[in-house]
Amino acid sequence: MIFFHPDDHVVVEIADETTGHSHFEGFQVGDQISNPLYSVVEEHTAALGLLILMPLLGILLVRLMRWRAARGSERFQQLLTGYAGQSTARRWATWAILTSALVHLVLAFGHEASIYTVLYLVGAAALFAAARWLALGVVTRWTTLILLGSIVAYWFLGAPPDQLGVVTKVVEMFALALLVVPSEQSKGRFATAGVVVLVVLGGLATWAGAFASAGADGGHHGGGYPEPGTVVPYLGVVAATDAEHDAADEMYARVVESLAKFEDPVVAEQYGYSVLPISGSSHHADNPEFLHDGKVLDPERPETLVYAEGADGPVLLGAMFQMEGLGTPGPRVGGPLTVWHSHENVCISLVPFALVSLLSPYGVCPVGAVNLPATNEMIHAWVLPGVEDGWGHLDDEWLADYLRR
Amino acid sequence: MRKHDKADPGALDVVWAIVLIQGAITILTGVEAVIGSLAMGVIVPAAPIILLSFGGGALALASARGIRRGRSWARRVTRIAEYLVLASGILTVLGSVLLDRRLPGVTSLSVSVIAPLTVIVLLRRNIASFTSAPAELVAS
Structure pTM? Predict the structure, then answer.
């Protein structure tokens, strides 16, 4: 479900009406709000800072350990001696695990006290122990199990996933790969396949977590985020006035009347829309001339028509109005009833030109596609008879039923 | 010859791990493209991208294996691929800064900029570890 309508969860109660702060950490009324998948939630910024400063911290840590060892600390002498005798792979793995441990430790104190605080502390302690064992040259199955546990726990407890969580899991998977570097043929195949499966499953689990955060249960950072890839303005609790209801209804009626002629895709072609061939249940047909005509929300000149393949041929679903240029807000003629949205991090195939997916949680597009970090604002008007919300979200199940009739 | 002074054959294990994860991520993007294009009804136009992603991922996994065995072809393929990933990463950074006025996510920076730079540097320092002949023959 895409949340850009006052009936949906993006419009939530404001915890403190005097300041306008909402339960979305860091968001205020008027801000653009998106799914945390491509950003870092406010409570994680300190840990992100630590991650960025880790090379510097690493140098300071080594110097501190040498200083303590020089003053007779046996513990640090043991650690330094053990570390010096390790292979390159084990040394890199030690630092990767130590980085993850420190991130977990900072996260424990970055959140309000809850069961997650305990989980972060347990995770940090286990990872510190694993890093120490590695530095001392004691490699046990526990080291691998701790890493596996930390990675898999995130699949179930990490919602909503954000960039800090994902990059920390990449660091842990890197450490795990270094621990299982193959030394013989059979083990090599097993280790390679294991890491690949873990990375792929981790990506899919991250998607599941990101979409779950757009539903009723948003994990430990609250629910009701927009779907991944969708950006909406944060409105707070806003009730439409009678005037806004009237304006929205009037504009909607004009759109329905104007779009009637486009039920036949051939007519749409004659008006300059790139309609054919129609495929799928959300075929967007642009009109190159209308995209750059300077007109805004003109019912006679919608920038895009939306069709679907129906049982008896193409079905006109509605229109999509677009703003020209990035960052230009669309006019909310019906106030909170007509909220525009934009998209972020969509992957575009250039040959042939098509939107193929969203940016992977790991931050890359498929080979041969490029990332479009932001789009212009847009709003849909759905003109199907019986549609529940003409300006809002078109329910997938409702549409599927409609198309089967 | 100076760069060989820092040669550390163990560093190839690090390269193996990075390229392995890059290959797995590339395969994942293929899976994501399948799911995304099916949902949007554009599976046919997306087919070349999907094939490229699965093919690229498989090539990365094969290269990772070749690198650990000291194969020259794997080093060459990986080097070219990493330069391409780096170029795409730099484009992503530029696109994000110019269009969205912010840096891309930390994962994008890590996977598309830091990882390829690390691999390129490690391969360059350890060029002496590669051979065009099978490693076991060289060893004997």
Answer: 0.87
